[in-house]
Amino acid sequence: MGWRSDENAFLFQWDDGQPGEDCLRLNVWTPGANDGKKRPVMVWLHGGGWAAGSGQEQPAYNGENLAKRGDVVVVSINHRLNILGYLNLAAYGDKYASSMNAGVLDMVAALEWVRDNIARFGGDPGNVLIFGQSGGGAKVSTLMSMPMAKGLFHKAVVQSGSSLRTGDAEMAAKLADAIVAELGLNKDTIDQIQTVPYTKLLEAQDAALKKLQPNPPAMGIGMPMVRGAAPRYGIGPVVDGKIVTRHPFDPDAPGISADVPLLVGTVLNELSPSMMDPALEDMTEDDMRKRAAMRYGDKAGTVADAYRRAYPKVKPVELLSRMFSVRTNAVTQAERKAALKNAPAYMYLFAWQTPILDGRPRAFHCSEIPFVFANSDVSAFATGGTDEARQLAAKVSDAWIHFARHGDPNHPGLPKWPVYSADAGPVMVFDKTCEVEGDPDRELRRVVASALGA
Known about the structure:
Blueprint: H1 6-12, E1 26-29, E2 39-45, H2 64-70, E3 73-77, H3 82-86, H4 102-117, E4 123-133, H5 135-143, E5 155-159, H6 169-182, H7 198-212, E6 262-267, H8 285-296, H9 300-310, H10 316-323, H11 328-339, E7 345-350, H12 369-372, H13 380-383, H14 387-406, E8 426-430, E9 435-438, H15 442-451
Parallel strand pairs: 2-3, 2-4, 4-5, 5-6, 6-7, 7-8
Antiparallel strand pairs: 1-3, 8-9
Helix pairs in contact: 6-7, 8-9, 8-10, 9-10, 9-15
């Protein structure tokens, strides 16, 4: 979808590589191979939901600068996606019993490879951090709940991807049945699916989705995800009782990773309405409220009033962006992690707004990635490549490096960053000036949850 917009393509500079099912490959950056050192290992799980992306698709994912800056080993992985990784064919025979979670099994296999081989690359298999953004954050959340992933990582970071629940198993089975029917197959002929070209599989999936749910609930990047939100058909892992044994962070945080420190956060403008449409910068207050109704229905006025009181001076388009970028899931994830009273949780909010494209993207979804990887210059098309961006990248990347090394993101370049607690709700705000705020949007989240009936 990103290629449909010149602005999107410019900001991300995607390299789609060579897509294919033979994708179980990974990338390693290390300051020194076979040197006997035990460096922290940072394993990157790419975004793109469960449907798209790769470990090398964005220049921001390049691990060289992060590895050099922190004296760490950086690994990015690939795994099966979409219909190849998550088609629930369990009802079609024992050989397909794990088909709905094949992509997750790939991630576990990659982490096992790291455990068995990373020492040769100067990494410590006993100190592995997994970190991911958007869909990658959902992957981190899921791995934190999986018994077979226990012990394969020791710290975790979720960036704009706090996933409380996996997909609905019954809906996944119905979708698979509809796809099989679109292909003209049945239980007796199901093995023929192995010879169907990938493009044909995608066409069958699209046709099946349109029939099962012609008008899906509005979701999209930045959609406030709250308990009680209507489920929709889609592709991704499901609870099967064997591989994925429970929902990641619902109804509580998984005890199996209680000893794993968690760093979790979001960006200020997960949804940036005017990024691809400059005219929206001049939207009126009335237009903003009409657009808010597309998400909040007859409660839009209540939500807009609450946000306007909180932010009386921002432009209507900025207000709309914040209304559509609620950090409900991230806060819930941090609260549930803190409730275990074991390893700490830390929260952040990335609020720095890019000057690129006249500033329209703001602190857009994915905007923190170049800063995490110390790639503000590599990704100058997204950051501007300014001294300001460079200085912030040093602070952000050092926080991730310190967290990988110690399970604590504090370092001399930042003010004291407290461990998360539900009552105080401290969040490190990364901006031109970095500072800690105490749960700055608590009341706004309550208003949004009420509007969505959660």
